[in-house]
C-alpha cells in the first residue's frame, strides 16, 4: 500500500510538472498567491 | 481504516501560488499532535510534529463555486516523540473541495493522509496520519 502511495505521488508530481510548464509561460488570469489556514481532527493508522 | 480511540488535532498554515486555472504549488506547515497507542509497533506516547511539505495541487476548475482538488507532496517534519526531538521525511496526499464565498475567500473541507517516517530515519516505523480539516483560503 505504501509503495503504491509513493509511486502515486511521484507520478502526480511528474505529470503536474509537465502540464504546468507550457501554460505558465503564457500567463493566466487565475495566477496569484494565496494563504491557507485550517483546523482538523486526525488519527493514526 | 478506522479512527483510533485517541483523536489528535492538526492546525494548518500554508501558502500557495496558483499557476493557472488548474494547477497550484503549495508549501504547507502547521502543528500535529497525536497519542501513539499501545498496539502500535513503535513506542506508545504523545507525538508532536511541525511539518513542512511541498505540494502540487490539481484543481478541477468549473463554472460553479464548488471546486474539488487533489494534491500530493513531500517534505520533512520536526518530531517530538518519546522524549526526543528530531526530523524525518514526510509524504502527503490530500483531496478536498472548496466553496468560493467571494473572489478572494473560499472555505472548504479536505482529507489529508500524512505519512511520517518515510525514510525511517527518526521513527522506527512509518506512521500514517489521517486528517479531516476545515479550511479557509485567502487570495492575496
Mean pLDDT of chain A: 72
Which strand order spans the largest sheet of chain B, edge to edge or round the barrel? 1-2-3-4-5-6-7
Separate helix tally of chain A: 1
H/E order of the elements of chain A? HE
Q: pLDDT under 50 segments of chain B (min length 5)?
A: 1-5
Counting DSSP E segments of at least 2 residues, the number of strands of chain A comes to 1
Biggest interface pair, residues each?
A: A-B, 30 and 58 residues
Distance N to C terminus of chain A: 12 Å
**What summary fits the major beta sheet of chain B?**
7 strands, antiparallel
Q: How would you classify the quaternary structure?
A: heterodimer
Shape of chain B: elongated
Describe the structure concisely for a colleague.
Chain A is α+β, with helices and mostly antiparallel strands and 45 residues long.
Description:
The complex is a heterodimer of chains A (45) and B (140). With 45 residues, chain A is α+β, with helices and mostly antiparallel strands. Chain A has one helix spanning 2-26; one strand at 32-44. Chain A is flat and about 40 Å long. Chain B is mainly β and 140 residues long. Chain B has a single domain, classed as Porin (Beta Barrel). Chain B has no helices and 7 strands. Chain B has strands spanning 8-18, 23-36, 45-59, 66-81, 84-100, 105-116, 127-139. A 7-stranded antiparallel β-sheet of chain B has the order 1-2-3-4-5-6-7, with no helix packed on it. Chain B is elongated, with a radius of gyration of 16 Å. The chains are: A alpha+beta (45), B mainly beta (140). Chains A and B meet through helix 1 and strand 1 of A and strand 1, strand 2, strand 4, strand 6 and strand 7 of B. Strand 1 of chain A pairs antiparallel with strand 7 of chain B, so a sheet runs across the interface.
